[in-house]
Amino acid sequence: MHYQRVLSVLVLLLSFSFSAHANLVNNGDFESNDLTGWTLTNGANPLTVVDTLSPHSGLSSASFGAFQSVDTISQSLSTTSAAVYNLSFWLANSDTQNSNTFEVWWDGALLQSWVDANPFSYTLFTYQVTATSASTLLEFKGFNDDGYFGLDDVSVPEPELLGLISLGLVCLVSFKKRHLAA
């Protein structure tokens, strides 16, 4: 019975920690219906917007449709040096002519690049990344001559969430071992 009480308290504390630790990305779901929180750097023929045409979830997503020149959206995230983060986002490509490029950058390092990609529906991409300072630049760069890259639900949760879950599991295992030994 005591074990169940401790487990209930731990689950309750973890649920509060989930709500207390936010996504480091401001407006990663683009639900503000604009690029609030992001810095847009247009190429020579810009066409990167937030629209409601085909989001992955919610009502809005970012659409990269610049013609033969790369548009960039970027955001500086508050990070902890040497901490490991999980970056995730949903990406789609509507271009059937394969004249496109899309890149993901973390702290000046290229994580992934799509060049002349075939069309694909929204797909989840995840990366485990390490911060090198207290501020980390996240960038998405792209153009799409005959369609759009749709970007949505960009997320970089604080790493404490994973640490709290791990700590809770260690405590549970330790408590269970002590309880069984007694």
List the helices and strands and how they pair.
Blueprint: H1 2-20, E1 39-41, E2 48-51, E3 61-64, E4 71-78, E5 84-93, E6 100-106, E7 109-115, E8 120-130, E9 135-144, E10 149-155, H2 160-181
Antiparallel strand pairs: 1-4, 2-3, 3-10, 4-9, 5-8, 5-10, 6-7, 6-9
Helix pairs in contact: 1-2
Q: Give the CA-based shape.
A: elongated
Placed side by side, the strands forming the largest sheet appear as 1-4-9-6-7
Mean pLDDT: 86
Strand percentage: 35-45%
By CATH, the architecture is named Sandwich
Task: Count every helix, treating DSSP H or I runs of 4 or more residues as helices.
Answer: 2
What portion of residues is helical? 10-25%
- CATH topology label: Jelly Rolls
CATH superfamily: Galactose-binding domain-like
**CATH class (first level) name:** Mainly Beta
Radius of gyration: 20 Å
> Which secondary-structure class do the elements indicate?
alpha+beta
CA-to-CA gap between the ends? 14 Å
What is the count of structural domains?
1
Low-confidence stretches: 15-20
| Number of DSSP-assigned strands | 10
Largest sheet: 5 strands, antiparallel
| Topology pattern, helix = H, strand = E | HEEEEEEEEEEH
Detailed description of the structure:
The protein is α+β, with helices and mostly antiparallel strands and 182 residues long. It has a single domain, classed as Jelly Rolls (Sandwich), CATH 2.60.120. Helix content is 23%, strand content 39%. The protein contains 2 helices and 10 strands; from the N terminus they run αββββββββββα. The protein has helices at 2-20, 160-181, and strands at 39-41, 48-51, 61-64, 71-78, 84-93, 100-106, 109-115, 120-130, 135-144, 149-155. β6 and β7 (109-115) form a beta hairpin. The longest helix has 22 residues, at 160-181.
